[in-house]
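Protein 1 of 2
SEQ + STRUCT:
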Amino acid sequence: MSVRSRIGIGLGMCAMVSLLGGTTVFAQAPETSKEAESLFKTMGFKIYGAVDASYTQNFNNPSTNINQMRIFDTQANSFSPNVAQIVFEKTAVASGSGWDRVGFRSRTSFGPNSRFSRARTNYQPGQDNTELDIQELYAEYIAPIGNGLKIQAGKIHTLIGFEQINSWENPNFSRTNMFGLSQAFTTTGIRFTYTWHPMVTTSIGLINGWDNIEDNNRGKSFEYLVALTPHERLGVSVYGSYGPEQSNGNAVFGNAAAGVCASGTPGCDPSGKRTVVGAIITAKVTNSDTIILEPYYGNEGNARAGGSQNARWNGIGAYHIHDFNDAWSTRVRGSIWEDAGGVRSCVGGSNFNGGTNSCAGGPGGFTGSTTGGGFNAQTGGGVAQTVWDVTLTLQYKPAPSLLTRVEYRHDHSNRNVFLYGTQPVNNQNTLAFQVVYMF
């Protein structure tokens, strides 16, 4: 190409850029992106989430490679890509237009942890390895009544208990037995929340039952929460639920197994009522130290073997959180939990890695069931026991969006429900490492 031709092409390009407004050509895409982002924020939409991975070493080296009596951290001596979670939501606010009063939340989890949290909502536990769980999916509206009555409908995290499904929302990496084996994860129904005073908020919900997307009987349960803040450094919440939780055969393992309940079968008496009550007491004793106590009690009619005996479980959890600064903190937890009827622990039930959470060596060499379903629908064939744990966690956040933890935990039971190699024993010790990226 001649020099004259090159000059001509260059002059032509300059003229085109000049006619189109110079920088306007190259800034068009970013401007559009900014406008879309601004509209997204104006509408009040938010997208956030987290990615959670860990490694857990079990010093008992169980032959099953399973950490017995654990909830999500069941894989012994193994790396685990626990979960990736995305939340899309619009929070309802009491002030403003009608649009401002409307909101929703969709919380979607992917990964091995989702197998277990998904199974807890009676979608064929033990028969499905799908690693997708819609943890929450609900709409909300704040009615212009008094201070604003919040109405939520759909699948929502339960009002019961201090701990949550997601580990990064808890002080420690692992969860207590009290949470995993005797408290609901989610509820599906309608919930009303009202703040009477800056120090008093109440919630009440009418629900299908514990973890039931599809009701497993013809009754409904209700849940409640009374949250009091008598002082800026002290909070006291009382929670509970009451209602029929046992199945009439409609959805023990999902509706695909309708009709499996027979008269007199443990866990199949929809007239039996489940009652639980607990409290969360939070005290900010210094600017760096927080103490949390959670006493808890549960009872259910006609849930034990024989179909005519009540089941009882109860426990207490205690936490001490010390923040050295914004990056470093320690979390010490102690909990004790009693399964007096043997209906909440060591009764089978699949965990997320395809094994079972049945216990290793109860009375008579009990090894548990492999058929699943033991956490939500009582089987009455488990091991009555008292189990406790001491958990020490060191947390470091090198950046606000990055959380790392090292956790040592000792579990002990009055029964031989753990494994040391192939030998049933009454204790186990684990060391876990966790990394969570939040966005």
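Protein 2 of 2
SEQ + STRUCT:
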Amino acid sequence: MQLDIILFRKILSRDLMDVMIRVGLIVFLVVMAVKIFAPFMGLMLWALILAVTLYPLHLKLAKRLGGRQGLAATLLVIVGLFLIGGPIAMLGSSFVDYLVDLHTAFENNTIVIPPPDPAVAGWPLIGDKLYALWSQAAHDLSGLLEKAQPQLEVASKFLLELVASTAGGAFKFMGSLIVAGIMMAYGESGSAAMGRILSRLAGPAKGPGLHALSTATIRSVAMGVIGVAFIQAVLLGVGFIWASVPAAGVLAFIVLILGIAQVPAGIVSLPVIAYLWWSGGSTGDNIMYTVYLLVAGMADNVLKPLLLGRGVDAPMPIILLGALGGMVTAGIIGLFIGSVLLALAYQLFMDWVAEGESEDAAQDEKQVTDESSQASLASD
């Protein structure tokens, strides 16, 4: 008996040591792989999101090109780079020219700021301070700038960091688009590999469904959040240009960022409407501009329910909550990660609930059958 115990301990010790070594090696490989891949994580996630979103368009284009996947992906990438890089280059050039002209005008003391209307002083809360600040800027701009130099240094530093971050994000996005083109060229094999991975994790019965849910959720968020924000920014940008609003392109870009962050566009459109009425102009034109900007500013209320959650086996509030929570946690990329994870969690939870209900129903049916059998035997 004692010999059996000693032998059992030796076998257990040897097997435990083998398991610990194997687990340690696996953990080491996973940690090192994550560290090596971490610098490219954001780029690859954006590339995956773009590839999944654009893949249906890629398939249609490849079909028209005789099934040439590589050529279709290349054309999509070139068009995407042109559509994204062109406006960014023009906006950057315009912004630089504006700063140069502003600096030249300031150096030559040719900046002219009209004095405020006396009615500004009657505005609630900020009227008196705004009137005094505006009046000083109109009569002694250099003195005002000298007094506010510390605040201007902080603001200029913040603006430079923001411009650098925006430019870096734009280049990163264009790099992701190029990688997405490579992914689309090998889309069939990549989709099959992802399907096998999910089938291995969730089982062959649930894996294909989770794969389809993940793909549909990414496309739904791309259309329902970013797509709606882009459409609304274009509509309001056209209205700003139509009404000759200064810095119309910058305001449209701000609307795009606010739309992605799920902030109402009225934060921009309502002050613009107030500016149009305050700056004068004919009443008929102002009414026309006001109606257009109000309708364009509320377009997301109609478009978002139509596009967000479309074709997804999860309710629209689940997708929206996941997108908002993911953005708070991980920025814009979190829009997609959060919505996919919450949709998958919802689907797995509801499948678990359905399995429990089916098991309860089967037990009830078996109990009824047994009671019927016993009753029939008793009657016999």
